[in-house]
Write a structure and sequence with these properties.
This protein has helices spanning 3-27, 34-55, 67-88, 94-101, 104-115, 122-139, 147-150, 153-175, 181-196, 207-211, 214-242, 244-249, 253-265, 272-290. The chain has one domain. The longest helix has 29 residues, at 214-242. The protein is mainly alpha-helical. It is built from 14 helices and no strands. The radius of gyration is 18 Å and the shape is globular.
Length: 297
């Protein structure tokens, strides 16, 4: 199997795992403890990543001039993203969250265009516009005539979570030229976990219940090791090899896995608005992936 094929396979597996994130978060929503759940998830992820590094016989080292860069990475991709996910699924369905997450590559392309001055080919621009329309259909459940009023707080939180991950994807590029994907993932997770720690006090009353619930602990461990440590590592390996836009385009598999798994596990039946909007988003991602090479600014 070629290196490119291995990267593709890892991304497909990772997207299947990530589709489970809103579903598991939905199963844990009764605890209403987004801060404790996010901290537990990434504390486990940080420990797992540290073990991965040690197994490779490496000693992770961080230069002081990159402290701020890793702090921004940890805040956007770990701290903010995870809190918003757990808060968002308390009031919105997991299948809807998964479709909204599919807009991440569209957001990555927009960040590239607005902040980095990249000009994309016509096909990619059409994809971006189509993705925006599809997202509007999803979050409004097809009621575009009353778009703002139709969007609930959960949808807004998931949109913000997707935006924070898009920034994480872009912000990690420079660091990947100086550190390995494993080191970038480890340090970002470490910074994000430290940032999450103080917020656990807000959920402190719920922590004993979580610690005495084997099913909840198993789900948090799964999120920490599989979804976060392994999934995030594979994601940055792909960003380093094939670029952020192409890598993030694989997230178009998340809503497919997500809708199927949400129906099987949670019994969530996708609405017509979700199916139509999701189809538009996936078509948009295909166009962006097809025309992902930007023109010179």
């Amino acid at each position: 199997m070629t290196t490119h094929a291995k990267i593709q396979l890892k991304l497909i597996i990772a997207t299947a795992f990530w589709a489970l994130t809103p579903i598991i978060a939905r199963l844990l929503a009764d605890y209403t403890a987004p801060y404790a759940l996010a901290f537990g998830r990434f504390l486990i992820a940080a420990c797992a990543l540290h073990i991965f590094i040690r197994v490779q016989g490496k000693s992770p080292r961080l230069t002081t001039r990159h402290l701020i860069a890793f702090a921004i990475l940890g805040f956007s991709g770990i701290c903010l993203h995870s809190i918003l996910v757990f808060m968002g699924v308390e009031t919105t369905q997991a299948n809807r969250a998964n479709v909204i997450f599919a807009t991440i590559p569209i957001m990555v392309a927009l960040i590239d265009a607005v902040f980095l001055g990249r000009r994309y080919r016509a096909g990619a621009v059409v994809g971006i516009l189509l993705g925006i329309i599809g997202t509007a259909v999803v979050v409004s459940d097809g009621v575009l005539s009353s778009l703002l009023g139709a969007i609930g707080m959960g949808e807004w939180l998931i949109l913000a979570s997707a935006a924070s991950w898009a920034w994480y994807s872009v912000a990690g590029r420079t660091l990947l030229t100086m550190y390995s994907p494993l080191e970038v993932t480890y340090f970002a997770t470490l910074f994000g976990t430290v940032m999450l720690a103080p917020f656990v006090a807000l959920d402190w009353e719920v922590v004993p219940r979580l610690l005495h619930d084997p099913a909840a602990l198993a789900m948090i461990i799964f999120l920490g090791i599989v979804n976060s440590a392994i999934g995030f590592l594979w994601y940055y390996e792909a960003v380093q090899k094939i670029g952020a836009v192409t890598t993030s385009a694989y997230i178009n598999l998340v809503p497919i896995f997500g809708v199927l798994l949400s129906a099987l596990i949670l019994g969530e039946v996708p609405s017509p608005g979700l199916l139509i909007g999701g189809s538009l988003v996936i078509l948009a991602l295909v166009l962006i992936n097809r025309f992902d090479r930007p023109l010179q600014a």
